[in-house]
Amino acid sequence: MNIPSPTPPRQKRVSVALLLLFILLGWLFFFVYQRPPSLPEVVPIPVTARGDLAADEQSTIALFRSASPAVVYITNIEVRRNIFSLNIHEIPKGTGSGFLWDKQGRVVTNYHVIESASRVEVTLADRSTWQATLVGVAPDKDLAVLQISAPAEKLTPLPLGESHNLLVGQKVFAIGNPFGLDQSLTSGIVSALGREIQSATGRTIQGVIQTDAAINPGNSGGPLLDSAGRLIGVNTAIYSPSGASAGIGFAVPVDVVAQVIPEIIRYGRLIRPGLAIAVADDQIARRVGVAGVLVMNVQPGSGAEAAGLRATRRIGGEIILGDVILAVDGRKVSSYNDLRNALDHYKVGDTVTLTIERADRQMQLPLVLEEVG
User: Fold this and answer.
1) Which region is the signal sequence (predicted)?
2) Mean pLDDT on 332-351
């Protein structure tokens, strides 16, 4: 039997040395060729101190914090019935804005925001949602009042300002829910005063404020504020070929709002002064050569009858035209819309002097205004 000879001590030492050499070379290879390159040293950039905000920034921030709790999100919900299953579905028809009028939970918005709604929801700034009931509307002024049952501690009404003394160029702010983006603030200036826009009924709203503060779909019914955070108008319409803000927005002036809203709250509608007459359509009046408002009928027992205003009548086969109203207290009127706008400056019971044309002769006729439907 062959027995292997033991490895000489010297050869064993050489083998161990070679093994250690190979291990060392392997580590060197790894660190030289396989280790990722060293990363550059990153030196932190110090944050520059902001310092105090500018005075106008501070005032805008304060204005938003003060006024935004009064601005609400309005959802117009329509009820539809499936013609196949007869199931009833509630579908959001549209959204808009509004604002808290008083601590009793009354909310002001545009009439067109809640028009034809089956149900209306009001979401406050704290995200709580309340079902609203309709107090009343004034479609000719595009205004409406809703009622919610939120507790008084959740309600922060806006302070009222004035619109008769506004100046072109002064700062204004709009808060609302454009495209559903609630509690959005935009700013601008009063671009023009005394504009006219059409309401949902086709009547013109006079004395409207024009602003370049961005107003978009969803802003309707929200407040327009002055730099003191006071309500000066209700954002109502925009002029835009694209449907988005083009820098031309319109707001119903607060002087009109302050007159209309208390009447809606008290009576559920706007109490309008009138003459208790029926007039000819403007186009028909023009066809017969009339340049004012042609009286077609006078209500029996009315102030107009007592004043002697004459209606259009037929005598035999001939039609005798009635009186033509040319002015109210010197304010010229050439259409029914002009007449209604002129009477908006008065209250029921006021006496006005009409300038009329009768049988090619002008005359003055005083009469007392009365409530009309």
Assistant:
1) none
2) 90
